[in-house]
Amino acid sequence: MARAPRPLIAGNWKMNGRRAAGLREARKLATRMRNQKQRRCDVLLCPPATLLAPMREALRGSRIALGGQDCHAAASGAHTGDIAAELLADTGCGYVIVGHSERRADHGERSRQVRAKAEAAHRAGLRAIICVGETAAERRRGRALEVVGEQLRHSLPKGCTAASTVIAYEPVWAIGTGLTATPDDVAEVHGFIRDRLRRRFKAEGAGMRILYGGSVKPGNAAELMAVADVDGALVGGASLTAADFWPIVKTCL
Ligand code: 13P
User: Fold this and answer.
1) What is the pLDDT of residues 73-109, one digit of tens each?
2) Which of 10, 13, 166, 219 could be 44's S-S partner, Cβ–Cβ 3.0 to 4.6 Å?
3) Which residues approach ligand 1 with their CB closer than 6 A?
4) Which domain holds residue 142?
């Protein structure tokens, strides 16, 4: 049997994080990680772009990785306000989130664009965290797996590997709402995603990490992390303070 993927606990700060408070929380996490002997999972913070460079310094020596929240498909050029994957890599990022449902909703991003962004991430040597997930209406109509299947098919580039690509299943209705999918629902969707990844990417698909995201909190993380084919979490609100994020990290550490 293939070895289970090494879990990843990732914090997505979204459009939050003033410099003083944000760096204070990052330093607290870094200290806890440095004091930790056993490290059975990877930890990642994705702050707003304004904090990437100072956070790289705050996290130095902690082995907490740094990531962007989005990237442009092009390597450089006249794209005011956008960030190339190459620029994220140059700032010390190892990961970038692409296709988050908030970008799909706020910026009308389609899966084909998400795929181009994931290709850009790979070109720049970044790991791409590719997000998928159904809305409440789609789930009510019994279309959750169909929607996730279509997003996977069109958002993942050719040649994804276990090292280059992470999938995040984030049901849109569970994001920032305090609602979480039940362990049974999570098991169903993660099992479905694993099956699709295996079929398309063979052994690499079997080794790819599939994160759950959507109102992950200290109180529900252990239960969610115990579900089959859940290889970590993508955490929003509860990643903003060390007091909330550290207990979530500890469920995998
Ligand atoms: P919350 O944990 O705040 O629900 O956000 C989840 C998310 O969207 C992470 O990318």
Assistant:
1) 999 999 999 999 999 999 999 999 999 999 999 999 9
2) 10
3) 12, 100, 170, 175-176, 213-216, 234-238
4) 8-250
